[in-house]
Specification:
Helices cover 36% and strands 16% of the residues. The protein is of the alpha+beta class and 627 residues long. The strands form 8 sheets. Strands 5-10-12-11-22 form a 5-stranded mixed beta sheet, covered by helices on one side. Strands 15-16-17-18 form a 4-stranded antiparallel beta sheet. A 3-stranded mixed beta sheet has the order 19-20-21, with no helix packed on it. A hairpin with a 4-residue loop joins strand 6 and strand 7. Bound molecules: zinc ion.
Length: 627
Amino acid sequence: MSATKPTISLGPGDAPATHDDPPARALTALDRNALYAARRFIGTDVEKKLKLRISFDVYFQDPLVAQENPKLAFDEEWYVPWEPGLQDGPTSARFAVVDYDAHMDTLAQPARWDEKQDGFVDPEGKLLNRHNTEPYQFHQVNAWAILQHALEFYEDGWGLGRRIPWGFNGSRLIVVPHAGPGENAYYDRSSKSLQFYYFDRGKERIYTCLSTDIIHHEFGHAILDGIRPLFIEAVTPETAAFHEFVGDLTAILIALRNTPFRHQLIEATGGDISKESTLTGVAEQFGKHVQNKPYLRSARNKLTMADVAGDQRPHYMSQVLTGAMFDIIIKLSKHYLDKRDDATVPQAFWNTIQRMQFMALQPLDLLPPVDVTFKDYAMAVLRAEEIANPADPDDYREMMLDVFIKRGILDTATGAALSKPHHVFERLDLDVFHDVDLISSSRADAYRFLDDNRRALFIPPNIDVIVADLCTAQKLTREGRRLPNQILLQYVWREDVVLEGRQFGHFDGQATTMLCGGTLALNQNGELLAWARKPGSQATGTSPPANEEQGKGTYRRLAFLESLTRRIRSGRIGTPLESEAGLLAKAIPPLVAQRVDGALRFALSPHFGITDDEDDVDGGRAWQISS
Ligand SMILES: [Zn+2]
């Protein structure tokens, strides 16, 4: 039987053979599965040689940038982890491309997986690569390969170090490359999909599924919805803005991993990317055709929290945090350049970009389960750095703290408190000890741990606390050193709130709930890594810490009501609109209200598009409740 199994050539492939290369050899499908099972011990370069990573031609940016910058047309280092179940579509473990155009009511044929050629082919059997970009099947493969790569960027040890679930029931995110006409793209939880539209500009047809930045931005929404599904149930613009930030951050960090692009940046800036004009000049070349949101350019700004206070536009507000993280990239690159010894400028710049992956992504696991703020993220960034690098000989934390304070994301008092000498790892002061292995073994066990320790964990005695998520992560430091396993526990409860007063319009007299809860991060030794909390206004005890916690919860409740009032007053709440095909931007209200278990729930619209929200301000389009 094994003789008839498809074989994969293992000789001269990616690189020209030299006399040092071993002779070409055939690898059976069984061999490949065995190697796949052991891949975590193999290392990226060998994985490529063993075809456990396969290269794909994907546009570095989009077809128009490719025309103007032939050197940057295709990403030459685009490898996607191979997996045994690859199928037509493309379909893989976590993605399924379904090329259905709802407007035309047409289903394009799927790209076919060709085991022999180790790639996807068009309906004529021709390999889909840079020499065959016209068919829709190339678009399908382009979007899929970018997503497979981006998922790995988040899941590997320098990212979250764990498998990431989706924000819906199901294991595959559906990808619709040609969803219909329109200048937009969406992540849409209700249809479990990413939807990409197309539009005509002059004689040119622009496909958003061929824009790498757009794919990355929308995928950022899908990732955040997967790890923090309750962020959607928020009434504050800051949480919506955080969603946009993660979209932009994903696009920026992955674009900067492209070697020719980094070289071009270095050439234009002489290695000093803080030079605003030259950086903007380079950024201008990208994304000017396809999107009205050039990510790299929007990252260079001087906006502070004071500038965006009271603003309801999530894209606009998100720039404060995107700008702060870009300030950190610039400072880090300066630092690496100064201390580079004999490293070249490109190497120093690569170290910066590689470091940013874990500096920016790992903190996502330390965020509270609900109502995230920019301050929560800044605190998580500082803490994640402290966990991985407690001695901090290069003063990275001080540098980042400075950036966050200048942007108004953290205040000076918080900064001073963080800079005080303290123990890096402490333990929770609990009433009832639970072994950390047991806590991490099941949600039911995690619940018993929470319930036994309500007083110590500031959980009100009578409410129904729920384990929202429980997982274990294996993260790495930048040097590739393994951190102790992290146990990540998210728990939430709902506090009843009755809306009373004319300011609540049609909702006057109705009941709703405010989400409360926390994220506990412990290491396998039971030490506390982080504990981000969103308290409620109910009493949890009479001790000074319990009173302080309740005070914070009371403040949260007032802020919740105030934010809701502002939203209602500006007519920004509608009813949820459901459509399998997805909807265009202007048909979607920014906030929706629906009834669950007899009470109102307010949530951000489950769609996140690329269209700018500049016209979507107070007094702009008003949404009506249909009942
Ligand atoms: Zn977005």
